[in-house]
Amino acid sequence: MKLPSSSPFVHSNQSVRALMFKVQLAVIPALLVHLYLFGFGIVVQWLLALTTLLVVEYSMLTLRNRPIKPFLTDMSALITITALVFCVPPGAPWWIIVTGTAFALIFGKHLYGGLGYNPFNPAMLGYAFLLISFPVQMTQWNLPAEVANYYITFSDAFSLIFTGKIEGISLDMITSATPLGKLQTDLTQGVGVIESLAHTLVQTVEAPNINADSPFHVIHQLVDLNSWEWINVAFLIGGLWLLYTRSIRWQYPIGFLSSLALMAFIFHTYDPDTYPPVDFMLLSGGTMLAAFFIITDPVTSCTTPKGRLIFAAGIGVLVYVIRTWGTFPDGIAFAVLLMNIAVPLIDQYTQPRVYGHRR
Q: How far apart are CA 281 and CA 290, in angstroms?
């Protein structure tokens, strides 16, 4: 058999399954912090998403006459639902995550031909679909246990997600908008950034069933971060591990976080009571989730080194624009999808010089 003759060949021991497994390991810190702060809603949502994944993947692969086991066990769909679950409020009705997962896998992956052929990030496509279709359900988040003075157990989460209530608890006491959503609302009502953030970051008494002797509790008391900022720090830790193991390229987080921070610095310096500071922008919403786990998707992002920087920086600028002047508090989904459209053009104009090229 004649071997293909083209060079240079670059071999890698990275498989799709191995890479996806590393990404799953990297989200464990964020999952543990999420469980500690917001309760077990995310576990119920993940189980619902996993069940939907198995049904959808089996059905679509069967319809497409593709082998079931290899595609079902490559863990690519698992990464999609993991990213989506972190974007969905942990107390959202069960049909939210089921609908979002089905839409992400069918319209974001299989209708384009499966993994490797999809132009849009499936998780962000599903998330954008949910934001546009069900804005009320997607903007009511559980309050952190320390603020609500109540920790949501697994049975509480199951009841909330499937019945819409927790026996003996008023939902108004344990749900609220995120800091980004609250800031956006306050600004429209004439409340300045400084006053809004002062009220957003105030911590109340702790939930009685949180273990005060746990290591994270001690760190939480020593470091002055609110609960949503801790989630971002946890994603940052997992993301740095991915960089250390060379599972993702450095251009993505550097380009995205640098452009977002630069935009925040410029506008906050210009008017600090209208535009939030850099640290708020970097540690709110899904910033670190996007930087290390969303925009790093090798299928829907650029392939050239310079292109990756441009792609990531473009997302950072769009996220700031949408958060600041758009309708939706956190514009990550729409920013990613818009830059997904530009990927072929960016790759075309950022191709590195061919080895051996002479001027």
A: 13
Q: What angle do CA 37, 28, 297 make, to 5 degrees?
A: 115
Round to whole Å and give the CA distance between 222 and 243: 28
Scanning the structure block, which residue is given the tokens 């086991």? Answer: 69
**What SS3 state is found at 141?**
strand
Q: How far is 78 from 74, CA to CA, in rounded Å?
A: 9
Per cent of the chain over pLDDT 90 is 51
Give yes or no for a contact between 56 and 99, defined as CB atoms under 8 angstroms apart. Answer: no
Per-residue tokens: 339: 């830059």
Q: Note the pLDDT tens digit of each residue in 40-95.
A: 999 999 999 999 999 999 999 999 888 888 877 877 888 899 999 999 999 999 99
Rounded alpha-carbon distances, angstroms, from residue 213 to 151, 209, 218, 300: 16, 12, 7, 44
DSSP type of residue 176: E
Positive or negative: CA dihedral 266, 310, 294, 215: negative
pLDDT digits (tens, 9 = 90+) for 120-151: 999 999 999 999 999 888 988 888 887 778 88
Query: Which residues does residue 141 pair with via DSSP β-bridges, in sequence order?
Result: 176
